[in-house]
Structure formats: structure tokens, C-alpha cells
Write the C-alpha cells for this entry.
Amino acid sequence: MTLQGKTKRQALTEFREAEILEAARKVFGEHGYASATVDLIAAEAGIAKGTLYLYYDSKDAIFWAALTSRFREMHAEARREMEAQASVREKIRASLRVRFAFLKSDEQFLRMYVTEFGAMCRLQGGPMQALYREVAEHMAGVLQAGVEAGELRPLNAMAAATALMELVKGVFAMRFAGMPGQDPDFDGEQFVFDLFWNGVAAQ
Amino acid sequence: MTLQGKTKRQALTEFREAEILEAARKVFGEHGYASATVDLIAAEAGIAKGTLYLYYDSKDAIFWAALTSRFREMHAEARREMEAQASVREKIRASLRVRFAFLKSDEQFLRMYVTEFGAMCRLQGGPMQALYREVAEHMAGVLQAGVEAGELRPLNAMAAATALMELVKGVFAMRFAGMPGQDPDFDGEQFVFDLFWNGVAAQ
DNA sequence: GTCATAAAACTGACCAGTCAGTCAATTAAA
DNA sequence: TTTAATTGACTGACTGGTCAGTTTTATGAC
């Protein structure tokens, strides 16, 4: 083994965690937390169950890692795109653009997010809580700045930020729930933007 | 036994179902579907597990009955109040008034609704699906009429109806999630109304 | 009123399946 | 040869659902 290069073993285990999380998202996404089994996740990842427990302590730990890692990625990208915009209006648009693209591109993550979010609310102080709060607070900061700049009407920024996130989730939930009004040409992103922007814009 | 009066037995069993459902809402509300056990529900209702299975076929059946019965009551009341209003604006206000009052008055039902809704989305065609759809379609009809009367701007009525329901749920979810911005004087009902009304009103 | 009988309601110990998590044995790398 | 990684059979706790047996109520003959 060299200092710089990777040994064969290291090369093998390098991406184990990521592989496990991808398998976990597939299984959790397809079956839901309750029906997903650790055996299934291990099989999907192509490793033995015991190996899985070398990397994560519990089913719970796998679940949270799988969910938060992608959620964090989505938020980081949204934040980057928002910062590239000047007006609050364009920041909101950028945020929606990134989030819709992200959720559309990863069906399994989307399913986890939409179907397990409610249950998460039970776990005060759970691993997802701090992250969700951080994301909401960032968006609230943006909205608050918009209020102070006169671009938005006076409002409870934190509530509005949460409302925006709920609207995004709601549009996708409608699909799973098999709701009508989901014409192929229905543009959820545009719909949420129109509703929210009209709801918060000044005048 | 008389034709009119109830025998002692009938009087006893008359409210069994309702008692079971109330116990079920308490247990499901406190623990969530997965952690709730049928034994717990039976104990809460003060009957043996076997008795419970005389009234409902499965844990699932108890859950759906407990959730949909209250949901139906809430909707019926909202619908009645809406019909007493002339303008779409006041119909929306009435709907929110009833729904907020209802959810605030029944903590256990609220918890079930907020925390288990996502999981419901998995069950295409489940018992709650048709009900939720019916409620959404009623609200969509009201909104569509508003569009045609020029009171609302042109929009996808079904999407807007769902969005409104998601907003209500979202405001309550914020509490469970321990989100900030929940000052004691934060008026969720007013907030949702302002956001939504501004979002859909004409001009 | 009361006693025998039938019917309905109820009970809770039990069963059978499930599954998260463990660990002694095995394999591969250093 | 040593060390690290991996395996998968196994365990033990849990719980949805059952059912043989018990209790309660209703009925009706006397």
C-alpha cells in the first residue's frame, strides 16, 4: 500500500456507504419505512446483512442517512442557485426550479420524502428536524429580506417559508394519491410559483 | 324487550364501535400506526382483543374507520358552512374556519391526519383515497365557480383545492415538527387565508 | 318469580410469522 | 502469518389474528 494510492481494500470500501444509501433509498422508496427490511436493503446493495451493520448501527440510522444526504444535496443546490439571483422573485423561482428538477429526477428519494415526512414530525429533535429547520430558516431569511425591501407584503416569514415547502411536497403528493387534475401538461412548478408569488408579493 | 326501547344488550353494544374508534384514535394518534398495537387499543377501549375483532376485521380496518369517520364529519361540517355563504371568498373563509376549529379541537385525530397522510398516498385506491378526492373535488367545484364568476383568476381548480388542503395540514405539521415562528399569537387560519386568497383572487 | 335453555357477547392464552440485530466461522488482503 | 472484512444462520422479542371456553343476557315454560 502506498501513501497516495488506494489499496484494493480501500478502493472496495470507499463507496460502500454511498452504495448502501442508494440501495436503501430504492427499498425505502418502494416499500416505505415499515415494510422495508434490512435484509432487502442488504440484498439490493449486494452485501450481507452483517456487512451493512458494519457501516450503520440500525435500520433507523440507514433511513435517516439515506434521506438527509439527498435532502442536503437538494438544498445546497437550491441555495447556490438562489444566491445567483438578485430579486426575491427570482430567488423563489430558482428555488422551485431546483427542487422540482431534483425531485423529478429521483423518484425513490421523492417517495421517501413525500410518504415519510409526516411520520418524521413525531420525532421531535430527530436527525431530519434540524436540517428541515435550517432549510426553512434560510428561505425565511430570503423572504424577510424581501419584506424589508418592499418586494413582499408584510408576513410571517417562517410560516411562509414552510408553506412554500409544503406546497412543493403537496404537488407531488397529489400524484401518489392518484388525484385528478394531473394532465400531462400540468406544470406544477409554475402553479406553485403563481400561487405563492401572488400570495406574498406586495400590493 | 320492546319494539321502541333498547334491550340492555343493545344499549351496551350500541356505542361499542364508537368507543373502539375513539380508543383507536388515541392510540394511533399517540404512537403512530406502526407502533400502535391492537392490544393497546383494546386495553384503551377497556375490552379484550378478541372483542375488538368482533367489530373490525383487522388493524388496518380499525385505522381507516377511525380516520375516515372523523374526516367525513369535518368535511360535512365544512360543506354545510360553505353553502351558507354567497361569495367564494366567504366560502373559503368558512371552510378554513371549520377545519381549523375541528383540528384544534381533536388533537388525536389531528396527529393521525398529519403524520399518516403521507403513508396513505402509497395506497392507491385505499379507503381514504376516494374520500379525500371527493373533498378535493367539492372544493375544486367551488373554486371553478369562482373563476367563472370572475372572482378568481383562471387556475387549475383541482390543484388549487389540493394546495389549500395541504396548506392547512402544513400549518399544523409545523407544530409537530417543532418549527419556530409559532408564537402563541400566530394565527394559522388567517395566515393560510391571506396567502391563498391573494394567490387565487382575480387581479 | 324462578329455573332451564339458548343465544349472543366476551375473554385472553396461544400460535405462527416476521424481522432487527448478533456473532462464530470463513474468506481475502496485507 | 496476521489482520481486516465479510458472511448468513441464528436468536429472541414482538404482535396480528384465532378460537375454545366463559360469562352475560334474553326467552319462555311453569
